[in-house]
Write a structure and sequence with these properties.
The chain is of the alpha+beta class. It has a domain at about 60-200: endopeptidase fold (from Nostoc punctiforme). It contains 7 helices and 8 strands, in the order H-H-H-E-E-H-H-E-E-E-E-E-H-E-H. The strands form 2 sheets. It has a 6-stranded antiparallel beta sheet. Strands 1-2 form a two-stranded antiparallel ribbon. About 25% of the residues are buried.
């Protein structure tokens, strides 16, 4: 009986060890939807990219192209966000309406930029003159409509498009320099800089 007892005892001791060794190689079951992290597969490069949240752009903000500086980006955002606001001579706010220079003053924000109130004053020696071929988003473009002097201003958006408050009976809208009317009345473009030049240099680095 003793040899039989030893054999039986050996089998009893080895069976749990063998079962444990076998189970250790198997994947643990998914309990209540949870799978231990040690068995979770590493995310692929594609899945990592898909985890990045895409920016939520409204139909208006999608019109704003990428800017070189925070200041110019803010300018275009403010202007585009008031699309559809009615024209009003002397107006400079979304609640009261805009004329062309009022829209520019509002978009450029007096706290950051120091701009005159009229389009002619803006065009007269204010800012840096820019060739039409070198226009950048945020530049001011000036026109002479039914006059020899500058009497209309708009903000350049890029791709020959600009935003402006056209005239009475119209609203803030986006137009294009490719139209013969605007080509014929185009005068000059200016690039205005923030009051704080040091802040601009930090942004551009």
């Amino acid at each position: 009986m003793r040899p039989f007892f030893k054999t039986w005892l050996t089998i009893c001791l080895l069976l749990p060890l063998a079962a444990h060794a076998t189970n250790r190689e198997q994947r643990l079951p998914n309990v209540n939807g949870y799978t231990p992290k040690s068995h979770a597969s590493a995310p692929s490069s594609k899945s990592k990219k898909s985890l990045k949240t895409a920016p939520q752009l409204s139909s208006k903000s999608s019109l704003v192209p990428p800017m070189a500086t925070k200041e110019s980006s803010d300018v275009l955002s403010r202007a585009v966000n008031v699309l559809g606001t009615p024209y009003r001579w002397g107006g400079s706010s979304p609640s009261k309406g805009f004329d062309c220079s009022g829209l520019v003053k509002y978009a450029f924000n007096d706290a950051t930029f120091d701009l005159p109130r009229t389009s002619n004053a803006m065009a007269s020696g204010h800012g840096e003159k820019v060739d039409r071929a070198d226009l950048k988003p945020g530049d001011l473009i000036f026109f002479n409509i039914k006059s020899r002097r500058v009497n209309h201003v708009a903000i350049y958006l890029g791709n020959d498009r600009f935003i402006h408050a056209p005239r009475r009976g119209k609203s803030v809208t986006i137009d294009t320099l490719k139209k013969p009317y605007w080509e014929n009345h185009y005068v000059v473009a200016k690039r205005v800089l923030p009051k704080d030049q040091k802040a601009l240099q930090v942004v551009q680095r």
